[in-house]
User: What shape does this take?
Amino acid sequence: MNRADASAAPNWSFRADEAARSVTRLFGQRLFFLPGTHIGAILRPSGRLKNLSRPWHYWWQAHYLDCLVDAGRRELGSPGRPGTKFDGVNRPSAGRLASRLVTGIRLRNFLTVVNNYYDDMAWLALATLRLDKLAEDTRKTAGRERNAKVLQSLSLQFDSASTDDLGGGTFWSTKRDFKNTPATAPVALYYARTGNPAKAQALLDWLDARLYEPVQGLYRDGLRITGTGDVLLEETIYTYNQGPVLGALLELGGEANLARAASLVEAVAHTLTQPAPLLGRTAAVLRCEGTGDGGLFTGILVRYLALAALDERLPAETRTTAATLVNNTAEALWEGRRILPPQDRLARRGSHLVFSDRTELPARRSYPEGAAVELSTQLQAWMVLEAAAAIAAAPAP
Assistant: This one.
């Protein structure tokens, strides 16, 4: 982009703030009315107590935490560009809400952060690690001792789940009958970010040896141990699985890992995209994978594509591809947003935007008036807009 085009560029930080306000006001609430807590309702419209009786989606909350940290980093600003609170000076900062959310997750999860799924715990560990770095950068001490205990507890779980069974990798659950990319990749990224490069590399090497699909250049789902002891390959390729693999490759660095990262970005662009109308043109955007858990998948991939877009160790063409995928996907979700009229039952505490669960379909069709809206799909849109904002805020090379 040249300087003449800069004034016409979207204000991604503004758009990310809009998403952050809409999601936190629509879904955010205290846990059991307890002060100092925060939790995300699973569905709206729905009553506070009704939401607490719904199934517990631990890993949705972990990604809610990650989104709050994204907003918190923007609140810090940068040299010459002071930050502002995403929801105004009289409301809690993103960092404070994030800290309350960790407390809420622990209480809602029966006074522990440990559960039966190692991938859930890996997502919470990655988000808590980022929250602790945000607290360090803002010189906040509240919550840091708790963060350290959370990370210590979760690290022990990852050590237990990353075994030599099936030649390596990380188990998905405490049933220990499935080793897969959803658990192995974020655990590898966590190890890479916490000073355990050998463990991280071993997990990535296992993924390359057992789950990499060379024709498409992407990672398959996992290896399942049957009741008879046979091992079955689950061949499905999900968008989100590619994200933490990419993140771990970039975090570890080195010629081989960076080459693999560049290939992975190109494979994503070739295989996991679809055409969508954008501002009068047709452009390639990342496909989405529905509602429920799938409502988070594309957002997770975009988070790590943004890291690739900003990594100067990668070829310029790869960085451009990654940035284009992020920005096109963000533009599709922003263009497709639905603005809530005041009389809409979803217009709660000033929340006013609903985003589509698909990049090729506007929210007025995927979430028409009167439809219930899931937290996962709105977190996905927020995550994508934060990724675009991070790329836009980066200094020019």
Residues 1-7 have pLDDT under 50 and may be disordered. The domain at 11-157 is CATH 1.50.10.20 (Glycosyltransferase). The CA atoms of residues 39 and 105 lie 7 Å apart.
